[in-house]
Amino acid sequence: MQLVEGDEIELIEAGITVVRGILAAGVHCGLKRKRRDLTLIYSEVPAAVVGTFTTNQVKAAPVVITQARVRGRGVARAIVCNSGNANACNGPRGERDALAMGAAVAQELGLDEEEVLVASTGVIGLPLDMEKVRAGIAQAARELAKSREAAAAAVEGIMTTDTVPKEVAVRFRIQGHDCFLAGMAKGSGMIHPNMATMLAFLATDCAVERESLDRLFRDVVRRTFNQISVDGDTSTNDMALLLANGMAGNRPLTADDPEFPNFARALEYAARELAKAIARDGEGATKLLEVRVEGAASDEAARIIARSIVRSNLVKAAIFGGDANWGRILCAAGYAGVPFRPEGVSIFLGHVQVCDRGSALPFDEAVASEVLRQPEVVVRLVMEEGQGEAVAWGCDLTYDYVKINASYRT
Amino acid sequence: MQLVEGDEIELIEAGITVVRGILAAGVHCGLKRKRRDLTLIYSEVPAAVVGTFTTNQVKAAPVVITQARVRGRGVARAIVCNSGNANACNGPRGERDALAMGAAVAQELGLDEEEVLVASTGVIGLPLDMEKVRAGIAQAARELAKSREAAAAAVEGIMTTDTVPKEVAVRFRIQGHDCFLAGMAKGSGMIHPNMATMLAFLATDCAVERESLDRLFRDVVRRTFNQISVDGDTSTNDMALLLANGMAGNRPLTADDPEFPNFARALEYAARELAKAIARDGEGATKLLEVRVEGAASDEAARIIARSIVRSNLVKAAIFGGDANWGRILCAAGYAGVPFRPEGVSIFLGHVQVCDRGSALPFDEAVASEVLRQPEVVVRLVMEEGQGEAVAWGCDLTYDYVKINASYRT
User: Fold this and answer.
1) Nearest residue to A403 via CA among B231, B375, B397, B308
2) Mean pLDDT of A295-299
3) Looking at the complex, does the CB of residue B327 fall below 8 Å from at least one CB of chain A?
4) Is A350 helix (H, G, I), strand (E, B) or coil?
5) Which residues of A touch B325 (CB under 8 A)?
6) In angstroms, rounded to a whole number, what is the distance separating the alpha carbons of residues B309 and B321?
7) Residues within 8 A of A (CB atoms), B 285-324 only
8) Residues paired with residue A171 on neighbouring β-strands, in sequence order
9) Is the per-residue pLDDT at B132 higher than 90?
């Protein structure tokens, strides 16, 4: 049993189906050559749903539809997601197809169409093969299950260039009730979420009042999914959803409940683990880059600076090469768009300080190289502007990133 | 004789020394292992000077000093620039060294210190070896000459990872006088100028009133140097300078002079050629990417969208791979931060239309691939928002970019 975030949250080896009332399935319907490409997540009872969505002006059809449903009724019973095709830039046909995906799920499961959320990920500008999608939905509906295997199949069904599945599950107690919160995510490329994220589907059986859940989720997304970057490209299909079906039996939590912070910690932990998993598995990545900014003028300033550093191609290439080129780190902080005094900035690579208040500090290159050779590299930027702090996550820029993206469609 | 921009401007095979009264030198003083690393440009008479500078919060010492001199007196006699060392993040010592570089030039040439402009480019956070710099300045002062060779040596002296020298020279007529405008630039990496540029030094013998020159230069920089991107990283050392020493003998031009547009065209042509040369020679680049945006809400909106596309890692990798992945182009337009209707956007790769009003258009992949295999790839984005238009230049993202930047310092 692994306790995280103090001793109140337990990390468990499980998938999304560990949440009471949540069933899942992942099938192969033929949109991708071999791997699973269609995922269905189902709640036995209506669940409050909150979400964040891409800020890209170009929004895929399923994003538009799901965003309207989440902001409208705010209650969901199912999420359907295909991979291999983004259903973006397909004009009126894309919208019809996204609606039809939801309708097919509603029919298979006897739900109201408005209770079905739709997502897609994959190539842009290619119409969906709806015959395959409909067959996949029928099969997934038949295979819905509460098993570990069903959860794992569901995670596989949303993957594109991801090399590892990304899921997380925690247990915590609210009002004496055992509660679960679990989720999955896909990432890899076109990852630079902006008030949104790549695909992440989370569920909890903890009962939470929807308004409080909505505010908390936006807040958590801002500190987790919105703080990762693989390549600086904000996708047309980003979406993070959280279902709360209340099946744990607790009285619905509101933001002023003394136990709300415990739920908030569980959610933030789960979201952060998924966000880090996405950054670590960025296209071509060999390392997770964690950038911590302290002493900024505000948390928001710290977030912007941390993101600018994890986004920098030059920083990312230096991390790949194990080159302690801290000038690029300070440079990337400098063009983030936030005013600060460079003479107040100190930089640490792991435990090695390389820059003291804006100036070079003699350091042992061999020790610094050793730090940079680790699979997780922590860069700490300490400023003298105020109390603001934030963390961002990214990855190195490698030959394989170029290779993967020079021929993604072919 | 090659006429450009209508029939009034003649492109000539020459360097900056073609400008009357301008002498130059480039020497090797030992900051780099073998190649020239110190450049001196000298005007026999005082020249009006205007410039734009990096907006990075972290400004190298020479940038701070030169910016103050350009905005202060606005008159210059010499530019000194070393490569191999950026003299950035070196604390008070960096400032002393930058001042000393200027002072050494003033002493060698009998000038006022305030008339000497200082620039540096290279590694960040490494103190300058002033003994070498002083010796280099003395040698350069001795070698100042008006020859084609001296101009070529001066261009070499400012190069870092540039693989080709970048210079331009034009002749035009003002009030019946032959005038020359010529310049040089260096680029390669950390190229994403923001209200500034990488190093570019231009000179003209045309007499131009300083206020008019200043406004024109900012305008031209906005459409040329600020519209290029190699890797999205805005350097700490960006600087573009233009000297106008009036030795052509014309009455000083002001913005309302009927012949001012002719001078403006010559300047814009020269700046654009240097900007494109920087983009084409981006680190590891195999192709020049030109993105034209038409029909945007405003020129500024068009500039922002064009820059977002040339900056996208995913677009750049697709161009490298010859992959006609237009979804990434539309996606990068969408996250530029400018509102527009995707249903009004059409995209052309060279002469091949691949997207019609936001939706896929069947096209011949072989023909599109052929377009993308050329050394210059033109992407055209036609919107239905208004009359705004702009061009931006970048390059492809290649294995060599990663290779160069994984071990720049070592």
Assistant:
1) B397
2) 96
3) yes
4) coil
5) 124, 408-409
6) 16
7) 311-314, 317-318, 320-324
8) A10, A180
9) yes
Provide the annotated active-site residues of B.
197
- Percent of the residues in chain B that have a pLDDT greater than 90, as a whole number: 54
pLDDT above 70 for A281: yes
Find, in chain B, the residue whose alpha carbon is nearest to that of A308: B233
Q: Please tell me the distance from the alpha carbon of residue A23 to that of residue A144, in angstroms, as a whole number.
A: 6
Contacts of A129 (CB under 8 A, 6+ apart): A30, A31, A85
Q: From start to end of A200-350, where are the E strands?
A: 200-204, 239-244, 288-296, 346-349
Which tokens sit at B127? 């103190």
CB contact under 8 A, A314 and B339: no
Tokens of A366: 């061999």
User: Does pLDDT of B282 surpass 90?
Assistant: no
Residue of A nearest to B324 (CA): A409
Work out the average pLDDT over A121-127. Answer: 86
CB count in 10 Å sphere of residue A11? 17
CA–CA separation, A198 vs A234, rounded Å?
Answer: 9
Domains annotated on chain B, with CATH: 2-279 (3.60.70.12), 288-406 (3.10.20.340)
Q: What is the pTM of this model?
A: 0.81
Residues above pLDDT 90, as percent of chain A: 54
Partner-chain residue, chosen from B327, B401, B407, that has the shortest CB–CB distance to A323? B407
Q: Rounded CA gap, A323 and B408, in Å?
A: 8
Closest Cα of chain B to A198: distance in Å? Answer: 14
Asked if B307 contacts B392 with a C-beta cutoff of 8 angstroms, the reply is yes
Question: In whole numbers, what is the pLDDT of chain B averaged over residues?
Answer: 89
More confident of the two residues A402 and B344: B344
Q: What is the predicted pLDDT for the residue at B195?
A: 44
Band of pLDDT at residue A194, cut at 50, 70 and 90: low
pLDDT per residue as tens digits for the range B380-410: 999 999 999 999 999 999 888 888 777 755 4
For chain A, positions 47-66, list CB contacts with chain B under 8 A.
55-59
Is the per-residue pLDDT at A409 higher than 60?
A: no
> What number of residues does chain B have?
410
ipTM of the complex: 0.79
**What pLDDT is attached to residue A196?**
44
- A92, with CB counted inside 10 A (0-12, 13-18, 19+), is exposed
What pLDDT score does A408 carry?
59
Question: What pLDDT does B220 receive?
Answer: 86
- Within an 8 Å CB–CB cutoff, is residue A91 touching chain B? yes
Neighbour order of strands in the sheet with B288-296 = B359-360, B352-356, B346-349, B376-382, B288-296, B388-395
Q: Are A367 and A352 in contact (CB under 8 A)?
A: yes
**Side chain identity, residue B262:** N
Residues 6+ apart with CB under 8 A from B119: B62, B63, B66, B79, B80, B81, B82, B158, B199, B201, B237, B239, B241
Residues of B in contact with A359 (CB under 8 A): 89-91, 93, 125
pLDDT at A195 > cutoff 70 = no
Q: Does the pLDDT at position B2 exceed 70?
A: yes
CB contact under 8 A, A127 and B360: yes
Distance between CA B198 and CA A157 in Å, rounded?
46
Contacts of A328 (CB under 8 A, 6+ apart): A312, A314, A315, A318, B124, B190, B233
Strands, sheet with A388-395, edge to edge from the N-terminal-most edge strand: A359-360, A352-356, A346-349, A376-382, A288-296, A388-395
